[in-house]
Amino acid sequence: MAQFLVAALYKFVRLDNFRDMQAPLLEVCQNNDVTGTLLLAQEGINGTIAGPEAGIRAVLAYLHADPRLATLTHKESWADKQPFYRMKVKLKREIVTMGIPNVEAETRAGKYVKPEDWNQLITDPDVVVVDTRNDYEVAIGTFKGAVNPETVSFTQFPDWVKQESTDGGVLRQKKKVAMFCTGGIRCEKSTAYLRSQGFDEVYHLEGGILKYLETVPEAQSLWDGECFVFDERVSVVHGLDQGSYELCRACRFPLSDADKLSPHFEAGVSCPHCHDKHTDEQKQRFRERQKQTELAAQRRERHIGAHLEAQKAAKAAAKEKARLAALAGQKGK
Q1: Contacts by 251-260 with C-beta closer than 8 Å and gap 24+?
Q2: Mean per-residue pLDDT for 192-217?
Q3: Which of 38, 107, 141, 237 has minimal Cβ neighbours within 10 Å of its Cβ?
Q4: What pTM value is reported for the model?
């Protein structure tokens, strides 16, 4: 039975004191054995965390106690292994980086479309469907008939919009635009950006692909492939069960079984997507890292992040030692 609850969350909301929120939020997560990454910016919060169910519930309760985050929603799934190695709370200029100021996603996002209504929208011949994710994510799965902007980074999206808004571009050919992404956050920002550029009928999938795969029965689904996720599960399928892809440890590209049969694949060192992009010196470092990882696995130890777990144990031991010393001091009085 899966023992780790995974919660993906975000909310566009003005957080003027986001810097002051960092340390207390990190402490709450660490005290509840929750790992993952949360991003804080003036425009809101974004991230994915995982841990024991009670720990995740405690962190969510802490966030909801802030009136600005009272309506924060999240998407849940389960994992057999802890999908993250450490907990990070980072301060950012944007919770999803587009590089365009004053997009105002909180108030200008497009119209939400619930997962159960999405099929009807994207099969409308007057609608152009756009996948706002990056190219390596689209490569392993997308909605049938969706346009791939072929971006390497979300910062390239505004240039793609500009190009496709000219005569002959896909955004000039249809009256309505429907956009989707993994969890919904990029859609809110991309649809807000389109509206700022004069597009009127702009829609996006509420809750993103993850909510669609959780909600819509596979027999009725228009999703083709698997959905890339940014943790050790790599991909998920309908029902949010773990998918079949693995991650290239050299370039972070999702790998299929066919990719691993390539002569360019070397576990932990290279794959068909990056075999010619690293120097011999880099590959040698990757080989040493892979060797240490395999040795740790043979000893049934975790190589990546093991030192952090040791630090955490040492910290807990020191805390307990200080507590016992304080008790001893009180008895001696």
Answers
A1: 251/277, 253/136, 254/136, 254/139, 254/140, 254/228, 256/140
A2: 95
A3: 107
A4: 0.80
